[in-house]
Design a protein that fits this description.
The complex is a heterodimer of chains A (226) and B (236).
Chain A lengths: L1 H21 L1 H20 L7 H21 L4 H4 L3 H7 L4 H31 L6 H27 L5 H28 L8 H26 L2
Chain B lengths: L6 E10 L2 E11 L4 E5 L6 H9 L6 E6 L2 E2 L11 E4 L11 H11 L5 H11 L15 H13 L5 E5 L7 H14 L5 E5 L12 E6 L2 E7 L4 H13 L1
Parallel strand pairs in B: 3-8, 3-9, 6-7, 7-8
Antiparallel strand pairs in B: 1-2, 1-4, 4-5, 9-10
Helix pairs in contact in B: 2-3, 3-4
Chain lengths: 226, 236
Amino acid sequence: MRRAIRLALVLAAKDLRVEFRTRTSLLSAAVFAALVLIVFNFARDPTAVATIDLAPSVLWVTVAFASVVAMNRAFTTERENAAFDGLLLAPVSREVLYLGKYLANLVFVLLVEAITLPLFVLFFNVGLGHALPGLLLTMLLATAGFVAVGTVFSAMVVKTRFAELMLPVLLLPFMVPPLIYAVRVSTPLFQGRPLSEVVAGLRFLALYDVAFITLSVLLFSAVVDE
Amino acid sequence: MAEPPLLEARGLTRSYGAVRALRGVDLTLAPGDVLLVLGPNGAGKSTLLRTLAGLLRPQAGTVAVRGRTLSGDDPDARRPIGLLSHQSLLYDELSLLENLVLAGRLYDVPEPEHHARAALAAQGLSDRAGDRPRQLSRGMLQRAAIARALLHQPALLLLDEPFTGLDAVAGDRLRALLTTLHEPSRAMVIVTHHAGEAWDIATRVGVLVSGRWALQAPRPDDLRAFHLTYQELARA
């Protein structure tokens, strides 16, 4: 077990090191998030819908699309020089490979969200105040779930000709449940309600995480073994 | 109880759509064996090598290394395998040293950085340890890939057309290396288009035609006579 965790961390560190050397995906996702927020900011009519009602949806739609952009890169670096063959050949279980990829993707998407959140506050002039701890918890729970699914799908689509197109088509339907609940939890938090009022939503997000992380671990081997 | 063979493949079958790349291929290798695999394009040589490495799952048949069947459920069964493929298996964004240290960690090599430096030095790449793979010439990249493949001292070395793209000097260097790697404890499978490239170190030759062994025998002494036999088999 200790070896599995150590190797998963080694693999995640490798992915993050590769990403931080290029920074292409991180920058793309951050710029994409900023553009989406700008579009929403100028497209909305503040007299028709109150900002506080619209803001949670805008935040999560932005996070969802930026995350897809970020996760597209998960396996593309593995294609160069058939580097992924080197991982498949190593005496490392497929579950550990998945865990390494998952951890790297999770850190990466959370980083994108960490960039998105201040931009969101800036554009929508939403005071987070007391909502911040609850919102961060919601982001962590929602992200942990859809990144689990996204990691499997990005491994699946990397062998296809239109990987960048296929990932959102496959992933977005699976992102809908955590996104709906993330919005449902975020809305009362933005309105200044206490965390105790959104426990049911957080519980759903945690259940989604457990279910889809487990399923993804089990499916990964079938996806990567030719 | 008798020790299991280093490599034992039974009834390997693999298709790509309607194309049957392997049709019931058997193979047994003992330590010290060096099998030269020849065959025309599309004969199934690379598919065979990738299946022996565990990178392709056979649709029928099994591959066992030291008696342990290769499967995703038993990652340790892959530990004795080293693969030199068409591609380097190296990450372009990591330096050669970082690539080898990563491989060392995955194979539980003790003191991975020390061994990675030693492996690079053995390939004459000490001064390029900080370079990225894309900064290297084809010959150097091949040597870096060899360093990676040998880092964990594999008992079974699988080489897919290792001489491709190498100039005469690099080819000679690789031949000399393969000679030193030919140890009683190690078996090698070398897929090639040119028997002469590794003829001297081979102990057996196999000719694959349309996914089947057309010939698998101890290496004959006369390369020229074998060449005529090979041409007949490949044409058939």
